[in-house]
Write a structure and sequence with these properties.
elongated; single chain; 4% strand; 195 residues; mainly alpha; Arc Repressor Mutant, subunit A; 66% helix; two-stranded antiparallel sheet
Amino acid sequence: MVTSMAQMSWCGLDAVPLSEPEARTARHPTLDGLEPVLRSAVMRLRPESIASQTDDLIQESRIRLARALGRGQHITGAYVKRVAWSVIVDALRRSKRTADQPTAEGGEELEQVSKGRTPEELVALAQLREGLQRGLESLSNERRDVLTLYLVGHTIQETADRLGITYKQADNRIYRGLAALRESLRRRGICSSGR
């Protein structure tokens, strides 16, 4: 076993030394080439409650990928995303286990976990939040403005008055904006084709 500090995983309190073949694989060209995919997957999938652990999540994912390469696993972009998702769920589970031990830092994380959401639900919510944001960004300015006001709780009439358009125009833009948003989420695999 190699025990140098540079070759150990520091995710949470766990330090896992790499074996000699894993240590050689940790700087493998395949892993270096997949770094942007890995970083993007972690950034996209992780909820804000564990944003401070992003570097640890990426490092833990790299170690798992190195171990998979050592076993002869063919590493694809989809496999990298599955590993990132698994690492994030594990981190959320760890935080849930320690939720009854509040600390000065991480109060928001503990608060979210204490709301009774499972790690899988937190990851799904993060994906939905990102999907909604990207869907809204893809809309025209007219639809995005109307839909944003509507989604934050304004009535159709309040939205129309605020934007200086007719009730019918606001209603139409909300209807079409919601349809476009649903389609955007469906294309991303975040919701089914049903309502």
